[in-house]
Amino acid sequence: MNCWKSVNLRKENNTTKMTIMSVGFSFLTFMFTFLIFSSIHPETQLKGIGLGVLLLIMLSLYPLHSILHAVPLWMIGIATTWKFDRNRRKQLPVIKYSFSKPVSRNMYVAAMLSPFVILGTASIAGAVLMPGYMHYFLIVFSLNSGMAIHDFAFIRQLVRAPKHCTVERKLDGMDIVLKQPS
């Protein structure tokens, strides 16, 4: 196997730039979706669930987003290894994962898209079914969309890769690997 490209987004992209893009995208997504939903349901009275519950939901969103990356891999029988890591600057902990064997490009794209699709669909469905709590569901949708910016950066790298490549996920990034010609 030959390594076609090693991808480490922390080294390739400015972390501050990616964070600003994620926060900005989350903010714009919330504004846009809230305007749409509030214009569809103008008579809806918004209900509260309390600040504590909202903070608990927001704090559990990042681990849930990370776990949902592994669901498509688990479905095809690939084991994943998890590590909670803090970088040198003592920022918030980061959840990193790797998997045991190489995965096809399309399966890895599915794994990268799964949190955005699953949580996005669930939160939009919740906003539609319970319009009184739509603002909470749209907060979840927008925060999840902001976290997906990093996933889309990985997907952008994979779209440029050859069709029949495989991906080896390491704790610090991924390697795009091609089979050696025989």
TrEMBL record:
The portions of this protein that span the membrane are 20-37, 67-85, 106-130, 136-155
InterPro entries per record: DUF3267 (IPR021683)
Q: Which UniProt keywords apply?
A: Membrane, Transmembrane, Transmembrane helix
- The keyword Repressor appears for this protein: no
Does the record bear Transmembrane in its keywords?
A: yes
Q: What is this protein called?
A: Putative membrane protein YhaJ
